[in-house]
Amino acid sequence: MAKFGKSIIFVLGLLLIIAIITNTAIGSTNISPLITAKILLARYFFIEPTWTSSQEVIITNIRLPRVLLGGFVGAALSTAGCAMQGLLKNPMADPYIIGMSSGAALGASIAFMLLLPVQVTSFVMAVITIFIVYNISIIGGKVPIDTLLLAGIAVGSFLASITSLIIFLAQSPHQIIFWLMGGLWTANWDKVKITAILVTIGIVMLYRYSWKLNVMLLGEEEAQYLGVNVEHVKQYVLVFSALITAAAVSVSGIIGFVGLIIPHIMRILVGPDHRILFPASTLAGAIFLILTDTFARTIMDSVELPVGVVTAMFGAPFFIYLLRKRRDNLYA
Prior knowledge:
It is a single chain. This protein is mainly α. It has helices spanning 2-25, 33-41, 53-88, 100-114, 118-137, 145-169, 174-181, 189-207, 210-216, 220-225, 230-252, 258-270, 274-298, 307-325. The chain has one domain: ABC transporter involved in vitamin B12 uptake, BtuC, CATH 1.10.3470.10. Helix 1 (2-25) crosses helix 2, helix 3 packs across helix 12 and helix 4 runs antiparallel to helix 7 (174-181).
């Protein structure tokens, strides 16, 4: 299974490179994938230009930042979903399950209303939400999983009600509503760089705990007998899952189902070993969001669909199918 899993990761890596090139080429202006690849390689190697300056501007300044941002957001949401499903031992878990999306949504709503930086405010509010949920859940120095989930639901519902109130009172709520739908319309190189740093750090740190998550699948008592500090692992996974989810949501809005279905599919393909499952989910999540965002921006001639709407349209029916076919020994 390990060799098969590594082969899957290699194939997904190749598919991600192909997805970046081909989806950067797709748009209202016809630019071939070959020309697109040459323009991208020309950033690092000397290649005799066979393209126009306008084509280079479209590729490097408009399409490539959006494609890369979509890749980082998809990777973040899928990896965080994988971590939360492993920590909670529940394939229905996703990155938003303990209120992170509600906190980010409230932060964005406040930012739009008070003319504050949306990315910074939504990121800060998402992190504050996790801090509140975690501290509410502590009982006797430990964090029971069921208490964590209930606290997340309660806090998330409360913050969502405040967001709804802000939308109701706002004179121009359209920006907030569009943000809540999820999209990559505002992608630029600054957002790509900041998101790439935060997401990369968070994913690498989560990878370090892949073996301990494997042990915790046996149960918390068994993991403690094997020398795993269960509460430390919970804190660690929650903090870095929150970091990468907040980094993603702050630039893209609420994009559902990526962190739910992609880890679920990868677990079926490569098994429950997080040493393989983490990188497979990261790569697959990046590919999935790049493809769905391209579909969202090209399916209609004059209008871009919110990518969050597209992921839900594809994700919900497919996840229902997966639930029907789900194996009983998914976490065996």
